[in-house]
Design goal:
Helices cover 38% and strands 18% of the residues. It is an alpha/beta fold and 313 residues long. It binds NADPH dihydro-nicotinamide-adenine-dinucleotide phosphate (NDP). The site of NADPH dihydro-nicotinamide-adenine-dinucleotide phosphate has 29 residues, from strand 5 and strand 9.
Length: 313
């Protein structure tokens, strides 16, 4: 029997992080969750952490402002998964992970590090637009530090979180589907890839003890969830038994709208541009130097977009 790694999850109270904690426990890993003193009297976070403890997780105190505390936390585990924030309109702390890399180097016992990635593969985004490219650039800075330090890694490229993209029928600024109308980005025909966040967590945890994923990028590409915006809309129309009124926005008009927005919105909108006007998620084949999660773990029954949409009925 292969011994399951002990896992430390950092950013465990976050949108993705809490799902990683759940998946790690469900898959039988001894699971540690970082409790940062900075969360202070944030009662929601405290309650969530306590609920993890009830489910069997161990809480370990540590701060990005206290190198020793990070090293001590790391010494208790084999694998670290970091899910610190990376969405500008919420919070963006990707570069904080450089401190974590330093602590991993010092601890010296970490067999695998999964940094906070979980989106578009930043290595493919060297030509991304300003200002959204900051998300990719920062993730590449962290990758370089990891690789320079010789830390074994797995980078999870999770494509579009379903909650953000399916819920809003791929329209920026929407996370609930309308029963009346939809704005198509260009002709709505560029293929994208949508993944339920719980599935992202389940696939991610499966990679950590898998030698096939060591020092690799793992893309999550559920074949039935490789869909265009128009196809997502059609699935919704089938569910509600009605056609939506459709309008469309050209790429130039979209980019003009972006210019008039605040910084955080511009970052998010330029990401939409690459996904829905350029098709950056699905317009390439996965090479021999990377892996695809659904092929590696076919026993995980992922949620199809059609089923994901049913919750909005
Ligand atoms: P959240 O915004 O939910 O934040 C995650 C956690 O980051 C927080 O719960 C907190 O952890 C930690 N954090 C926040 N601020 C600080 C700080 N100042 N110092 C230290 N820790 C802090 O993150 P998400 O779950 O939205 O994002 C996780 C990853 O997923 C990111 O890399 C992001 O880019 C990616 N993503 C991808 C999407 C996609 O569609 N592909 C969509 C959204 C995100 P705690 O308090 O528990 O310590």
């Amino acid at each position: 029997m292969v011994l399951k790694s002990k896992v430390l999850i950092i950013g465990g109270t976050g949108y993705l992080g809490k799902r990683l904690v759940k998946a790690s426990l469900e898959q039988g890993h001894e699971t540690y969750v970082l409790r940062r003193p900075e969360i202070g009297v944030d009662i929601e976070k405290i309650q969530l952490l306590l609920s993890f403890k009830k489910q069997g997780a161990r809480l370990v105190t540590g701060s990005f402002n206290d190198h020793r505390s990070l090293v001590e936390a790391l010494k208790q585990v084999d694998v670290v998964i970091c899910a610190v924030s990376g969405v500008h309109f919420r919070s963006h702390q990707i570069l904080l992970q450089l401190k974590l890399v330093d602590a991993i180097k010092e601890a010296g016992n970490i067999k695998r590090f999964l940094p906070s990635e979980f989106g578009t593969d930043p290595a493919r985004m060297a030509d991304a637009l300003e200002p959204g490219r900051v998300s990719f650039d920062d993730k590449m800075v962290v990758r370089k530090a990891i690789e320079d330090a010789g830390i074994p890694f797995t980078y999870v490229s999770a494509n579009c979180f379903a909650g953000y993209f399916v819920g809003g029928l791929c329209q920026p600024g929407h996370i609930l589907p309308s029963k009346e109308s939809v704005l198509l980005l260009e002709d709505g025909n560029k293929k994208s890839i949508f993944v339920d966040e719980d599935d992202i967590a389940a696939y991610t945890i499966r990679t950590i003890d898998d030698p096939r994923t060591c020092n690799k990028t793992v893309y999550i590409r559920p074949s039935e969830n490789i869909l265009s915006q128009r196809e997502v809309v059609e699935l919704w129309e089938k569910l509600i038994g009605k056609q939506l009124e459709k309008s469309s926005l050209s790429d130039q008009d979209f980019l003009n709208i972006v210019k008039g927005q605040g910084y955080a919105e511009q970052v998010g909108l330029t990401h939409y541009y690459h996904v829905f006007y350029e098709g950056c998620l699905a317009n390439f084949e996965i090479g021999d130097d990377a892996e695809e999660a659904c092929a590696l773990y076919p026993d995980i029954k992922y949620t199809k977009v059609e089923d994901y949409l049913k919750q909005y009925l």
